[in-house]
Design brief:
This is 4-carboxymuconolactone decarboxylase. By secondary structure, the chain is mainly α. About 80% of the residues lie in helices and about 0% in strands. The chain folds into two domains: about 45 residues, no CATH class; about 70 residues, Up-down Bundle (AhpD-like).
């Protein structure tokens, strides 16, 4: 993706924000896996999600992280929930923040969605703790 990456200001800002939130290792793996088929999608999310929405100054990265995890949990997007829980190491969202967000999910999107997201978050936190201890 880097070779043919767009050089728009929004793309550059998006890639910087994406790296700040998800970490270089994650973004490097994602960009290394890009093919011609999914290149347009990767460019879209880098510019729109990361370069436009996540880069806006109104909410902090911590606040965006909490909102994103709640939305993904409500939508049942398990892989994305786990990825964004791991990203809390970079966004400043605490485990208490995530717990509170998932309580909102339980009330507004349903107990099963929150219950499943809590399971995913616990697994992600266990993995993060193990990596930190190593």
């Amino acid at each position: 993706m880097n070779e043919d990456a767009p050089s728009s200001e929004r793309y550059i800002k998006g890639m910087s924000t994406r790296r700040a939130v998800l970490g270089d290792a994650h973004v490097d793996r994602a960009t290394a896996a890009v093919t011609e088929f999914d290149r347009p999608f990767q460019e879209l999310i880098t510019e729109a999600a990361w370069g436009h929405v996540w880069s806006r100054p109104t909410l902090t990265k911590r606040e965006r992280s909490i909102v994103t995890i709640a939305l993904l949990a409500a939508l049942g997007q398990d892989d994305e929930v786990a990825m964004h829980v791991r990203a809390t190491a970079n966004t400043g969202a605490s485990r208490e923040d995530i717990c509170e967000a998932l309580l909102h999910v339980a009330i507004y999107a349903g107990v099963p969605a929150a219950n499943h997201a809590i399971k995913i978050a616990k697994q992600a936190f266990e993995q993060m703790d193990a990596e930190q201890a190593a």
